[in-house]
Each structure stands twice: as C-alpha cells, then as structure tokens.
Design a protein that fits this description.
9 helices; Rossmann fold; 322 residues; alpha/beta; 2 domains; seven-stranded parallel sheet
C-alpha cells in the first residue's frame, strides 16, 4: 500500500478537525503515515497528531514559515515529501493549503486531484471520488502511474477517530532563498467569530438564507445558534447580498460541513447549497414554501414563517435548560 504524507492544517499548534480526519483516513487506507507540520506551534501540534495515526512528523517551526507568503512553506513541503518518500500527499481543501500544495506539486512534477470526498487504493494508486455539477454527479479520478499524487480532501469527508500512539518529530532544515522572500506578511488581522465555533468544526450549525429578507434577520439566526452553542452558516444568496460574511458561506463554492445537527432557516435548498451540507447527520429545514427543495433531504421539515417559528423555539430550548 502507498505511504501517505499528511500536510497538517493547524492554528498555532491547535490541530484542525480536517487534519484529524485526513490522518484517520490515511491510517485506514494507506501504509506508513507521516505528517508535515510547519509554522508557529508546529511542535505542539505533533503531540496531537500521533493519536490519529501519524508515526513520524517532519517539523519546521522557523520564523520564516510565518513571515513570508506561501513560498517558504512550499520549499518545506517539497523537502518533507522527498525525505519521507511518500507516494501520496493529503492536504486540506482550504485556500492557504491549496496554494502551498499546488506550488509544491509543480516543483515535484506530481499529479493533483482536488476536493476528494473519498479515496480508495488500487495498489499504490489512489482513486479519488469527488462531487461535480453541484453534487448531482460524482467523478472518479486517478493520477497517472509513476507520479507523486497530491490529493486535496474536503473537510468532513472522513470521520476522525483516535487510534492512539505518538509521532516521532524530525526537524527539517529548509533553505529559504531570496526568491521565497519576495512577499512578506506585514500585518495579520484575526477574524472575529463572536465566540462561536467555525462551521467546519461545529457539531451543530444554524444557517440562514434569502428567506431572512435582510441582514438584520441574522440576529435571529445568531440567537438560536448561541442557544445551541452552534456555528452560524449562510447560503450564497445571503452572503452575495452582503447580509453575512462570505467566510460563513456553505455550499459548493463555500464550505463543506457535516455536523451532527444542521438547521437551515429561509434556505430554499438549491443544488449549490445542498452540495455543502447534505451529509449532515440530522437536517431540520424551516421554510414557508412547502415545495422548497431542501425538504427533500430534511429529516424534519417545518413549513412556516421563520420569524414565527424561531423565537418560540429559542424560548423552549432556554426553558428546558433551566
């Protein structure tokens, strides 16, 4: 079976959910599982990733990893792939990791398959299943034999499971030349989440759409979300209208989520949106249109005005909390 290198996505040492999912999948499907961890907090992240199956981690925590845009980590990833001898690289289908992995793949002459929902192996070759045409169809892809395989994995495509163990940390020495320092990061602004979990990490999500009617309607969505300690999501129509930040968009061109509970209010359920949330374990839809497509995938459907449904729902939840 193919040896897999997982490019770890973390936030200053806090390992993201998608990383645990990729490591679990690699452990279940591949041979030896190694990891590449770069940037501030990398050493702390190593303590966590071993529990999900990584036996070794290539660590680079030099200041250059965070001081410059993309290029230093590209060099580090190339070196980690070369030193590990991995035939397959898993990385998160997120903007920053996409940028790094794509550049590293070009330098290595590797093949790239994006947005994997599932991966199976035929010998050492990964066969990737991905959704196309808004989730209406699936495609199976593979990299041409003899090439290193870079595969971006959609968040929540796999379930994270701890398997125990620890990862051996191997310090990488990376040569950061002048070309890699052409774009320097001069400022970083942390986006406020209002104390709510990110939608890709949340176990419960409350999402709003065009049916809210205006940006002020998201105050009601946030109220329900806070009652449930949930993340807040939005449809593309709502984010395009400027009612909520695009970083909360769920769908084919937004984020893919698979929470335990998904509540969609005022969302019709167009194909684009369903592609990003239809694997949720339990789906509750609130819409005044009984013909809304989202009811076709909902476990519980409430036909009604969300402004009349949500307030008593919040009151009842709070009452039961005592």
């Amino acid at each position: 079976m193919a040896d897999i290198l997982v490019f770890v996505d973390h936030d200053k040492g806090t390992v993201k959910k998608v990383t645990a999912q990729m490591l679990t999948a690699a452990k279940q499907k591949g041979g030896t599982v190694t990891a590449a961890v770069f940037g501030e907090g990398a050493a702390a992240a190593v303590e966590r990733i071993g529990a999900f199956g990584a036996s070794k981690a290539y660590v680079w925590e030099a200041p250059e990893a965070d001081q410059y845009a993309t290029e230093p980590q590209v060099a580090a990833l190339v070196k980690a792939v070369q030193e590990s001898g991995a035939q397959v690289v898993f990385y998160a289908a997120e903007p920053f990791t996409n940028d790094i992995a794509a550049r590293a793949a070009v330098r290595l002459g590797a093949g790239v398959v994006t947005d994997a929902n599932d991966v199976v192996f035929e010998g050492d070759t990964a066969v990737v299943t991905k959704a196309i045409f808004g989730g209406d169809m699936t495609s199976r892809c593979r990299v041409k034999d003899g090439h290193i395989q870079f595969i971006s994995v959609k968040p929540n495509a796999f379930t994270a499971e701890e398997s125990g163990g620890s990862a051996e940390a191997v310090q990488l020495s990376v040569d950061v030349d002048d070309n890699a320092k052409r774009a320097k990061i001069v400022d970083t602004v942390a986006q406020s989440a209002g104390g709510r979990p990110d939608v890709t990490e949340a176990a419960v999500i409350v999402a709003g759409g065009r049916g809210l009617g205006n940006a002020e309607g998201f105050g009601l969505i946030e109220q329900l979300a806070d009652t449930l300690k949930a993340g807040v999501g939005a449809s593309r129509a709502a984010t395009d209208a400027g009612w909520y930040p695009h970083s909360h968009q769920i769908g084919q061109t937004g984020k893919t989520v698979s929470p335990t509970l998904y509540i969609g209010a005022g969302i019709s359920g167009a194909i684009q949106h369903r592609a990003g949330m239809q694997t949720s374990q339990t789906i509750i839809a609130i819409n005044k249109d009984p013909e809304a497509p989202i009811f076709s995938i909902a476990d519980i459907g409430i036909v009604g005005d969300l402004y009349k449904v949500i307030p008593p729902l919040v009151a009842e939840i709070n009452a039961r909390k005592g």
